[in-house]
Amino acid sequence: MSERLTRTGTGTDTEDARETVTKVRGPRRVVAAAVVTGAEGLVVAGFGLISLVLLVTGRPDDMVQAATLAVTVLALSVLPLAAARGLWLRRRWSRGPSMIVQLLALPVAWQMAQNGGGLLVAAVALALAAVAVLGCLVNPKATEALGIGPG
């Protein structure tokens, strides 16, 4: 009798936990898109910081050009990081910037692949990440979770 009283709801504890996570974070596709977009933003920010450190510690040929590169790359990291945060919080506006980042990543990956060598691996990883995020963001469940389209 006590066993009946302790069971609540119709699902198991695992199902209840999944439902709670889905309600808090949204569908897995949106969470995956947020994580990958955020990782891309962190990589770009890392390149910007490396450029800044090289500017300060080294002696570039053209100081203005090196400073412009570092500041530009750091500024470019803001878009994917903001989009990732928006996706994580299921903000409607975040889908567009994230998709733009992915569409811009595809020609970058192509150019990296043309150079070959060690860049080929990075190019394939970037292209796969971009296609995966685009696939996640056009999925009907993701668009519905973000408040876009019918629903």
Can you offer a commentary on this structure?
The protein has 151 residues and is mainly α. Helices cover 79% and strands 0% of the residues. The protein is built from eight helices and no strands. The longest helix is centred in the N-terminal third of the chain and has 30 residues, at 28-57. It is elongated, with a radius of gyration of 21 Å.
Count of helical stretches? 8
Q: What's the SSE pattern?
A: HHHHHHHH
Low-confidence residue ranges? 1-8
Share of β-strand residues: under 5%
What level of helicity do the residues show? over 70%
- Summarize model confidence as the mean pLDDT: 86
Major sheet summary line: none
Between the first and last Cα atoms, what is the distance in angstroms? 42 Å
| Rg, alpha carbons | 21 Å
DSSP strand count: 0
The SS-based structural class is: mainly alpha
Characteristics of this structure?
single chain, mainly alpha, elongated
Strand and helix map with partners:
Blueprint: H1 2-6, H2 13-25, H3 28-57, H4 63-76, H5 78-88, H6 95-115, H7 119-138, H8 140-145
Helix pairs in contact: 3-4, 3-5, 3-7, 5-6, 6-7
Please outline what is shown here.
This protein is mainly alpha-helical and 151 residues long.
